[in-house]
Amino acid sequence: MVLQQLDTHNSSFDEDGFLLNPTPWNPKLVASIAHFDEDGFLLNPTVWNPKLAASIAQLDGLPNLTNDHWYVIYYLREHHLNHGTLPVMRHVCLANGLERHCVTDLFHDAKEAWRVAGLPNPGEEAKSYM
């Protein structure tokens, strides 16, 4: 299923071009658009967009994604798309000028950050490091 383009007409962006506070979709719409594996990872990362990320976060109990959340999310996506691997979470934080434990401070754990970033299941070995 093809996602509709995110309506950015009335949206705010930060100085780096990140969309600030997209309105999440309701859970039924998320389920109809995005399909997840048994561990909650997005099966098709190409359907990901900021609105879907906000919806996943809200369903996971993170109602408001801050700029710091978005820096981590975009870093994870860029790293995975360029290298196909899970980065060292401490490096994710340091690369974004954040405290070294930012991922666990911002998200419940690295697994949740990976899920909100819309990335596929990294495999059993990688999940053991999350």
* Oligomer type: single chain
End-to-end Cα distance, whole Å, is 30 Å
The value of Rg in angstroms is 14 Å
Query: Tally of extended strands?
Result: 2
How would you sum up the global shape?
Answer: globular
Number of helices: 7
How much of the sequence lies in strands comes to under 5%
Provide the low-confidence segments as ranges. 1-11
Query: Helix coverage percent of residues?
Result: 40-55%
Structural class: mainly alpha
Largest sheet composition: 2 strands, antiparallel
SSE order: EEHHHHHHH
Give the overall pLDDT as a whole number.
Answer: 80
Neighbour order of strands in the largest sheet: 1-2
Q: Could you explain the architecture of this structure?
A:
The protein is mainly alpha-helical and 130 residues long. Helix content is 45%, strand content 3%. It has seven helices and two strands, in the order ββααααααα. Strands 1-2 form a two-stranded antiparallel ribbon. A hairpin with a 5-residue loop joins β1 and β2. It is globular and about 35 Å long. 30% of the residues are buried.
Brief synopsis:
The chain has helices spanning 27-33, 50-59, 67-83, 89-95, 102-106, 110-116, 124-129, and strands at residues 12-13, 19-20. It has 130 residues and is mainly alpha-helical. The protein has a two-stranded antiparallel sheet.
SSE layout and pairings?
Layout: E1 12-13, E2 19-20, H1 27-33, H2 50-59, H3 67-83, H4 89-95, H5 102-106, H6 110-116, H7 124-129
Antiparallel strand pairs: 1-2
Question: Characteristics of this structure?
Answer:
130 residues; mainly alpha; two-stranded antiparallel ribbon; 2 strands; 45% helix; globular
